[in-house]
Amino acid sequence: MANARELLGRSRRGENPLEGWAPEVPRGEAFEVGSARWDAVEPRGRSLLGKCGFVLVAGGLGERLGYGDIKIGLPTELATGTVYIRYYIETILAYQAKYAPVGIKLPLCIMTSGDTNARTVALLKANGYFGMDPDQISIVQQGEGVPALADNAASLVLDPENPHRILAKPHGHGDVHALLYSHGVARRWLSDVGMEYAVFFQDTNGLAFHCLPLALGVSDELGLAMNSIATPRKAKQAIGGIVMLVKGEGEERTINVEYNQLDPLLRATGHPDGDVNDPDTGFSAFPGNINQLLFKLEPYVAALDRTRGAMPEFVNPKYADADKTVFKKPTRLECMMQDFPTVLEGADASRVGFTSIPAAVCFSPVKNAVVDGVALQARGTHPGVAATGEADQHCAVRLFLRSVGCTVEEAAPATFGGITAVPGPEVVLKPSFVSCPSEYREKFLNPSSVKISARSSLVVEGSGVTVESLDLDGALVVKCED
Ligand code: UTP
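Above: inputs. Below: predicted complex with uridine 5'-triphosphate.
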């Protein structure tokens, strides 16, 4: 309550939370698909795929999507109908089979909430945990939320549907760190299972893992305690930017800064033009955060032990009057998982950086209802709907196939329900077949003998498959038992 009153007071007075900090270009590296640098760094990360624990944050309400069930039960694409949680688990099991020491099971932790827990557990059980051993999976559940606050004095509000309860609202995905601490998950992964890294990812991103070995390579090369996967960001583009903030003598923190704070911060600290594109790259020096995070477990667990994983909170009330005394609706304190750099200390605070990869191969979430997606697409913004989530997965695989020399045609864009996307060719390469970009070369032995027409659909599954030549104009499913 004390924190709420303090933060509400600061919000009312319009205080800048970044006062005293100056922005600088963060540590990290940007990569192009098929580039020599990607090819050089990814092998370094490939062997580390067998040393990762995975954290899926899946407690969100999904209000914008407006889907009646849990998001991880949605299909990633319709060529195979694989649902998100199956896709994630199959990927982790493929890493385990290919890269983990014999007998080691890669752990998965799913953060649920009161809204998603029962249905998540039911989905896993009904599908035999999608092939994982149940003891590989830990489920940690967010609390019922934090009290809703009616005014600047942080008065509590009664639940209109049950006047014997205090109205609660979600506290945000920042809870994940406290849960990994209190359930002992992160420490177990480090001490008992021998994992070196923890990978945090979201509920509906079908491109989440293409970049993982590359990001692991960057973390290893730069010795990073925390590495944010990012995408090239145009100056002033409405996504948070990864920024290195410095203060006084040597205080440093590389962290996500919301786009509406970044431009004023730059202007206030000696950059009169604010956030501008670098003429060499055509992009802002501050890459866009997609909230997929890679932590080195040792410093992560040390920081958890010190802080119990509590993230700094913030408050974002919508005011109904100019004096900022009346709220349009009750607000609450929130926290975000990407704020972890605020609790890193000493040398670890400087070991934070980014890996920037084109969004086409790392980020296409399914967050929005079609009607909102149509409006976003009309404004030139990625719509983040189911149709684009699907189309972007096929597109990413086509890009990787072309990058190794295969000939893959491109279908003409088509519009369904107001959303325009390139529908094909549909290519689903299951993780048992290829699970990272550098494996494509090992599986497509003569890329110049591979041709896939625009109207084709291809599904390949099985670790023993290699493609010597292929001229596909139609549908082909190759399924091979291990
Ligand atoms: P989103 O931005 O997609 O938010 O969360 P959301 O709450 O799921 O959807 P809206 O805003 O209601 O439309 C990013 C990720 O963080 C998880 C989500 O499940 C998603 O993977 N999340 C979000 C949590 O796990 N807990 C939370 O309290 C909030």
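DSSP finds 13 helices and 25 strands in the chain.
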